[in-house]
Backbone:
C-alpha cells in the first residue's frame, strides 16, 4: 500500500489528490504497488462515484485509442466481496468495455468505505468533473455518512464554509430545475437567485426563460428582484347578476331580514325560533290556527 495513503487520507488532503493517484498509477518511486491484469467483468463502478453522467462521445474516442494502443495507465481498484470496486479510472474502464477488451491493467489498494467516498469526491472536484448538483449531492452524502458539519467538510475539501452552504442550498430547488443544472443548461449563478423564491411555479417559469432567452446572471437577478416586489394580486370579486340583486332586495323587504341570493341558492337569516316562525308564516309554510 502507498506510504502516503497508508497514513490515511489526512496525509494527502491539501495536496493535489489527482496527482497523488496518478503517481500511484504511474508507479511513483515512493509507492510499492504492483500492477496486475483483472477481468473487466469482475470490476464494478465505485458506489460513491459522485459523477452520474459521462460524455459518451469522449468515451468512444478513448475506446478507439485503446483499440489501437491499449491501456497505458492502470486503473485503481480495491478488493470487494464479489470481485473489485473502482477507485479511480472509470473512463478507462468504460472505454475498455466499449473496445471489447477482456482484461485491464490495475493496481489493487486497501481502501476503507470512508476513503473511497472522500477520495472520489476530492478527485472529481479537483478535476472539475462534477456539475453543480452532483457536487452538492456529494457534499450532502459526506455530511450524512461522516457526520461532518459544514465547517468540517469545508476543511476536508479545501473550500470555504460559504461555498459549501451555497452549494447545499441548490438541493432546495425543485427537481425540474435541478435537472436543468445537471444538464448544464443553467449555471450556479443563474439558479442562486431562484432559491430565494417561495413560489416553485414562478421559479420554474423563470428557469425556462433563462434557457429559452439565454438570460445573463445579472438579468436573472433583476427578474427575481422585480418578481419579489410585485404586489400580490387580490382576487377580484365577481359582479353579481343584477337580476339576483333585484330578487334579493324584494325578499329582504318582504321578510324583513337579511337575504342572500346566489346562483342556485338562497340564504335567509333569522335571530331565534320566534323569528324563524315569523318568516315561515310569511312564506306560508305554517298554517295559522
Residues:
Amino acid at each position: 500500500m502507498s506510504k502516503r495513503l497508508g497514513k490515511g487520507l489526512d496525509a494527502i488532503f491539501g495536496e493535489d489528490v489527482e496527482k497523488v493517484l496518478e503517481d500511484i498509477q504511474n508507479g511513483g518511486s515512493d509507492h510499492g504497488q504492483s500492477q496486475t491484469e483483472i477481468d473487466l467483468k469482475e470490476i464494478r463502478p465505485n458506489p460513491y462515484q459522485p459523477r452520474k453522467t459521462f460524455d459518451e462521445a469522449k468515451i468512444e474516442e478513448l475506446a478507439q485509442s485503446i483499440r489501437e494502443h491499449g491501456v497505458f495507465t492502470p486503473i485503481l481498484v480495491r478488493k470487494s466481496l464479489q470481485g473489485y470496486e473502482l477507485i479511480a479510472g472509470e473512463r478507462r474502464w468504460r472505454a475498455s468495455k466499449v473496445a471489447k477488451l477482456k482484461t485491464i491493467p490495475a493496481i489493487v489498494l486497501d481502501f476503507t468505505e470512508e476513503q473511497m467516498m472522500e477520495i472520489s469526491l476530492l478527485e472529481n472536484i479537483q478535476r472539475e468533473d462534477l456539475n453543480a448538483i452532483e457536487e452538492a449531492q456529494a457534499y450532502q452524502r459526506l455530511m450524512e455518512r461522516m457526520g461532518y458539519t459544514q465547517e468540517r467538510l469545508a476543511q476536508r475539501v479545501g473550500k470555504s464554509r460559504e461555498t459549501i452552504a451555497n452549494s447545499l442550498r441548490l438541493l432546495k430547488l425543485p427537481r425540474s430545475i435541478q435537472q436543468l443544472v445537471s444538464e448544464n443548461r443553467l449555471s450556479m449563478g443563474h439558479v442562486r437567485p431562484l432559491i430565494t423564491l417561495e413560489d416553485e411555479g414562478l421559479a420554474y417559469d423563470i428557469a425556462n426563460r433563462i434557457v429559452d432567452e439565454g438570460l445573463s446572471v445579472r438579468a436573472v437577478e433583476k427578474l427575481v428582484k422585480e418578481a419579489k416586489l410585485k404586489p400580490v394580486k387580490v382576487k377580484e370579486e365577481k359582479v353579481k347578476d343584477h337580476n339576483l340583486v333585484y330578487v334579493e332586495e324584494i325578499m329582504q323587504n318582504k321578510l324583513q331580514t337579511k337575504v342572500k341570493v346566489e346562483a342556485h341558492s338562497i340564504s335567509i337569516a333569522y335571530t331565534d325560533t320566534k323569528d324563524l316562525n315569523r318568516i315561515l308564516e310569511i312564506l306560508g309554510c305554517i298554517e295559522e290556527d
Summary: The first strand starts at residue 35 and ends at 39. The CA atoms of residues 258 and 269 lie 5 Å apart. The chain has three domains: 3-130, 173-236, 242-282. The chain has a mean pLDDT of 80.
